[in-house]
Amino acid sequence: MYGCDAAGRAGVEKLGKQLFPKGRISHLNKDEDLNDLLQQLGPEMFEAKAKKLIREAKSLIDIRIASLASMSADDKVTYAEASIFPLLAEVTTIKQGAYSTDKPATKT
Question: pTM, whole model, 2 decimals?
Answer without folding.
Answer: 0.61
